[in-house]
Amino acid sequence: MSDTKQPYDADVKDEKTLELSVDSTSDIQDPNFERRTLRKVDWRLLPLLAVVYAVALIDRINLGVARTAGMGKDLKLTVGARYSIVTCLYFVPYILGQLPGNLVLRKLGARNWLSFCVFAWGAVQLGMGFVPTWGYLILCRVLLGLFEAAFFPGLVLIISTWYRRYEVQTRLAAFYLLSITIGGFSPIFAYAISLLNGKRGIAGWEWIFIIEGAITIALSLVFYLGLPDFPDKNKFLTPEQTALILKRVEDDRGDSVPDEITFTKVKLHLSDWTIWAYGVMFMCATTPAYAISYFISIILQGMGYKISDALLLSAPPYGPAFISAMLFAWLSDKHRVRTPYIIVQAIITAVGLILTAYAPQNSVRYFGTFLTNAGCSGCIPGILAYGANNVVSQSKRSVQSAVTVAFGGIGGIVASTVFREKDFPKYRPGLWATFGMQILMIALALITAAHFKRLNRLADEGKTKKPLEGREGFRYTL
């Protein structure tokens, strides 16, 4: 074989024999060419993923808005723990489906598999507008969790394969925060839809599910046509641009070429305790995020706001969260550290929870929701980047992202169960439980950082038996 390698052909099917190279005389070494290529990837990848994931969030969390708009009364969800049961059971298939969904992503193709998932949960969401009892609502929520399970970890995996380690948090934050910012306006959108109450004999809360489900189904086609897939399978870049993207990843961490996923590898990856630590940290970050999503309009209603005001005031806390989290993501990538910024944002979350629980004035309690949302919204992409930075090989990345996001589903279960109906309207036990999880997240951030710092030191001193993560020169991100 010649030593001169050619730029990657996007039609190459045999990934095992994929060879990376860059012609030394090509544009690829031009910094302007690199910036243009990255900008092209950013604009093709991030807005599309953000919009579709925003729809996923809206479809997942609009239960609280629908309840406020009349579903709670019509389906008798205020009886006992029915509302908590309905919100909680969504997460059982959502958690169980994460790892299998990520493991088949390569085999089925990201575009085919994820577009099917979007279409399927859109159909379920639409069907929720016609449920006659709360039992049928549970069935729809279980199916919704099943079809959404593979989506978020799949998106995280795709994004992490396109960028170098210290570019990924800013991109993950942009994608995630665009999603939650768009999703943050869903209460206003839902309130507008609910004004259709009585049209064609359909209740306002039913219109919320019908219209939002129809929008999701339409977006599944857009997603199918627009998703660029993994770098080595993309069709929108030139061969030279593709070679550049793959070379950057290869130089950074050596896993631009996908390795085969086997049962033995999956077991080996799952034996790494740090993968489970990322998951628990993610659970601690998502619990307040889900609590805000599911209960903010209910908490505001409990403060004395009328239904329309409670729905409209549910959106503003998402605005400052975008600015705060993007700032922390930029700082984290710039300084190439993760845990200090995760800890700071966990503290912000904890302060917000205390204010929401105990501040005597409603205005200060409402301000607490801003702090809570800002802190947890920044921790989520920070933890995703922390995990993605500290694994090598696409098979381990698939396992790590799936396990991490699966624990996010456990955070949803915790939020659904600790915010109990009997604690309405202040939900102090739930807020205290969520506060305790921020302390746990800080502790795990310190433990993992100390562990990685020790391994890096041993590697620098030549005292490790083999290279870290099997990659010569690799060092963990703290």
Automatic annotation (TrEMBL):
Major location (coarse): membrane
Q: Specify the superkingdom.
A: Eukaryota
Entry keywords, A to Z: Membrane, Transmembrane, Transmembrane helix, Transport
User: Which compartments does it reside in?
Assistant: Membrane
Record domain Major facilitator superfamily (MFS) profile: where? 45-457
Could you confirm whether the keyword Transport appears in this record?
yes
InterPro entries, per this entry? MFS (IPR011701), MFS_dom (IPR020846), MFS_trans_sf (IPR036259)
Database matches in Pfam families: MFS_1
This chain belongs to which protein, by name? Major facilitator superfamily (MFS) profile domain-containing protein
Residue intervals passing through the bilayer: 45-63, 83-105, 112-130, 136-163, 175-195, 207-227, 275-299, 311-330, 342-360, 366-387, 399-419, 431-452
Q: What membrane topology does this protein have?
A: Multi-pass membrane protein
